[in-house]
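Late entry, NAP complex.
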Amino acid sequence: MSDASRWFRERLGRRPWWMNLLMLFCIYMAVIYVPWDLFVKPVAADEEVWFGVRFHGVWAKVLAVPHFVVYAAGAVGFWSMHRFMWPWAAVYVAQVALSFAVWPLLYLDGPSRFVSAVIGGGLFGALAWALHRSKPRFHVRRPSLRERYGEWALVTGASAGIGAAFARALARDGVSCVLTARRGERLRELATELESQHGVATRVVEADLATAGGAAPLLDAVADLEIDVLVNNAGFGYAGRLDLQDPARLDAMVQLNCAAPVALTAGLLPAMRARGRGAIVFTGSVAGLQPLPYHALYAATKSFDNLLGEALWAELIGTGVDVLVIEPGSTVSEFHEVAGELPHAGEPSEDVVDKALRALGHKPSHISGVFNWLRGNAGTRLLPRSAITLVAKGVIAEQTPEELR
Ligand SMILES: NC(=O)c1ccc[n+]([C@@H]2O[C@H](COP(=O)([O-])OP(=O)(O)OC[C@H]3O[C@@H](n4cnc5c(N)ncnc54)[C@H](OP(=O)(O)O)[C@@H]3O)[C@@H](O)[C@H]2O)c1
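Prediction complete; structure with ligand written out below:
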């Protein structure tokens, strides 16, 4: 059996057959029926039923929107067996059962309406009950990261921002951490915090990963440990027009953002594979999903990380080693200042990490935030390349000091 069919069967095996049918129905409704209903069906002919009451015309069009939201959320929720599905799937289907029970009584004549009400209401009532009883499928107690992967993690770029948040989240789940970056004092403070608050072991390794061969001393420093989780997170951006930039700093960016993750992954993956367990996380970026003028090389390095991690996810499927690329948008950290960008808002680093660790083991990559997801999927796939690049130029120009443009 090919990896693709094994993966697909594993995904379908996460829920009973009747839930797979419900998921298919949600996909059909969200992708075909409701868009057709919304955009093609004439307003005068449109009809929607909520709680057994019929709505016509403009009201029906308006009420098709919450139907779309319900079915799209249902498709995504069943696919990932997300916690939000309980109790909401049961509540929604109970509303459908009520509709099927009320609708014939309101709008049909003769004794057959009672039969319709009982059959329709009864069938959907049973489905609502089955969904209500399925709480354990949606609210699974997930083993801790330590139980899943092992004792030690190596987190690069742990002295600030997203890396420090990764280290805190891993330690909270009982994983001991090797903390690495250049600023040793910051790392030692974090190590003390993790040891005292979470009782885990730590090791601080000061290393400059932006130099050629910079990963080798780090690998030597952890050679006596079984590293089960590798977080390839250290990175920096460099705002401005390429011809105005310092070639040495551009070179350092390629070393840190691209070469170091390759060297660390190549150094630690064979042992993980041999043990049959492990996790590798790449901090990629939505910046890697399209060209970014005034951040041209940075976007290219993040595209490298995104593709490297996603390809490894597929290479390692079935080996016990999970790979995830987390693709944050603008995030609160020292990144903007280091990159020389004008200050702008972002998502908290902790939220990005929380999403990454929830997605780890479930998919190859995760885009953090709905707006970023829309930009990264709909925007970059549907619009012409010229349009998406020029829109990006306008957005990044706003964040780039004038003298660097
Ligand atoms: N913040 C955002 O908006 C955003 C969005 C998408 C993706 N990302 C990605 O997220 C990752 C983490 O960035 P962040 O937002 O947390 O930024 P940050 O707060 O500036 O943290 C960057 C980390 O990388 C380390 N680092 C920088 N140069 C290094 C070097 N030469 N050798 C070793 N470590 C080095 C820094 O430590 P030292 O300075 O102590 O060495 C620091 O710990 C990066 O890969 C970045 O591309 C950030």
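The chain has 16 helices and eleven strands. Will revisit in the morning.
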